[in-house]
Design goal:
Length: 392
């Protein structure tokens, strides 16, 4: 296939299947390299490259060797084509570039020994290309939600912020359908337990489009970026189901003790795996003990100071056995107040500082509590970085 005939139409490349979906990270430019080969360039990440093992696909700044070169092969129609790895072709292997859209609506590339997927040129005068040469949204943008100064003050003071009805009802319904369809598979619905011994809902639900849409098709992610700045895009979630206690136990079980709280990642030495917890309610929690998220308003400041103290001790040298027995190294805060239970409705979003102590409250109701959590950080965030003088 003649590269010149294609490049005359434009140089933005997209997989054929993305025609009717909003896809991030689709800005690939095809650059001719000699008379036979082409390079695939991303404006931010460099040139796309298939590793010599024929499995790993990644971007590398300045890569122009044989593993970053591609041959064009005809597709099923005149305007379609496939990218065949030149380096592997030279070594006697047929390795093609393929692509898929993940749960965050981002384009992910992979390598295939089959024919791979078809690509096409998106002309620069296409209505789906904006003035900067990037793919525009064919699905409506999430509705805007502006974070006010009062919201920011509330988050700084209390360590959490609740946005009522922020997620559209149709997104909530699709997420519930996806979860319940998986639950209907019985024992086969669950994956093996995670590192904390908790069973995880399987079937790819945690990374599914319906679940990730709660973050990316609602205002939630845009709100997070107003709080954190440019934010890394998670590709998975936590499906948090709280099943009701049986009748006798639900009436007689004593409340949880005040000291029954945690912060996510507190067993890790840095105790700082992310910055902001984002929870989306999928079920009604109109009163206490519906499996609510319980938080300790304002205690994120005390916990932040405790994390700094234990990290300081670790830097001076601590026996591993001591740290395993008590990750706080004697500095776990004592909280005097009872947890405040978040009374939420489907579509409400809770943002909480990672250092805000919290817990899952009892579920004395007759209903399953459905919640989805995303863990967010600013681009470039380093969990092991030195903690500053202020919790924010």
């Amino acid at each position: 296939m003649q590269l010149s005939s294609l490049l005359a139409q434009g140089s933005l490349v997209q997989p054929v299947f993305t025609d009717h979906a909003r896809v991030e990270n689709v800005k690939l430019r095809m650059e001719p390299f000699g008379s036979q080969f082409c390079l695939l360039q991303h404006a931010e990440f460099g040139n796309l490259r298939i590793a010599p093992n024929g499995r790993k696909v990644h971007f590398a700044e300045g890569a122009r060797g044989k593993w970053a070169r591609f041959l064009l092969e005809d597709g099923d129609t005149p305007d379609r084509f496939r990218f065949k790895s030149f380096g592997h072709h030279e070594d006697g292997r047929n390795i093609y570039l393929t692509a898929a859209v993940d749960g965050t609506a981002s384009l992910q590339f992979a390598a295939s020994e089959g024919p791979g997927c078809e690509f096409t040129i998106l002309p620069m005068d296409s209505p789906y290309v904006d003035a900067h040469g990037t793919h525009s949204a064919l699905v409506p943008e999430p509705p805007p939600l502006q974070v006010t100064d009062e919201m920011k003050r509330s988050l700084v003071r209390d360590g959490y912020l609740v946005l009522r009805g922020a997620v559209q009802p149709e997104l909530v319904d699709d997420a519930l359908r996806t979860i319940n369809a998986q639950l209907g598979k019985g024992p086969a619905a669950w994956d093996e337990a995670d590192e904390e011994g908790k069973a995880q809902l399987g079937g790819g639900v945690r990374q599914s489009r319906a679940i990730m849409n709660l973050l990316y098709r609602s205002p939630a992610f845009a709100v997070a970026e107003q709080l954190l700045g440019r934010t890394s895009r998670p590709t998975g979630s936590q499906i948090a189901l709280r099943f009701p206690d049986p009748p006798d136990k639900s009436r007689t079980r004593p409340p949880k003790a005040t000291e029954q709280w945690h912060i996510d990642g507190m067993q890790k030495h840095h105790q700082s795996p992310f910055q902001l917890l984002c929870g989306v309610a999928l079920s009604s929690q109109p009163d206490n003990d519906f499996g609510n998220l319980g938080v300790y308003p304002g205690a994120h400041v005390k916990v932040f100071d405790a994390v700094k103290q234990q990290r300081s001790l670790r830097e001076r040298g601590v026996e591993e056995s001591t740290a395993l027995q008590d990750p706080w190294l004697g500095h776990r805060p004592i909280l005097a107040e009872e947890a405040t239970q978040m009374r939420v409705q489907p579509g409400d979003v809770i943002f909480a500082h990672q250092k805000l102590p919290h817990r899952i409250c009892l579920n004395r109701s007759p209903h399953v509590r459905y919640q989805v959590y995303f863990r967010l950080s600013a681009v470039g965030y380093e969990p092991n970085a030195c903690l500053g003088g202020d919790v924010w």
